[in-house]
Specification:
Length: 76
């Protein structure tokens, strides 16, 4: 059964009309957005739960993580 699936995937990849993910990305970048990299990046739906930290906040979070993982943290 696995051989049939592998054969089917290989057949799909070699099909004339199919495009690879890289080809789709290049089409989006160069044809749809005219090579404008910033416009292309803005069109991508990014994960919203992962927000970048402010510089001071990042230092505080890293310090808290270091204290929690320190072997003598119960003495601090």
């Amino acid at each position: 059964m696995e051989n049939e699936d592998e054969y089917e995937l290989e057949q799909d990849a070699s099909y004339k009309g199919s495009r690879t993910p890289t080809q789709i990305m290049e089409h989006e970048l160069y044809i749809v957005h005219g090579g404008n990299y910033k416009s292309y990046l803005n069109s991508i739906e990014w994960d919203t739960w992962l927000q970048p930290y402010e510089p001071g906040e990042l230092a505080r979070v890293l310090e808290e993580a270091a204290i929690k993982s320190h072997p003598f943290n119960k003495f601090f």
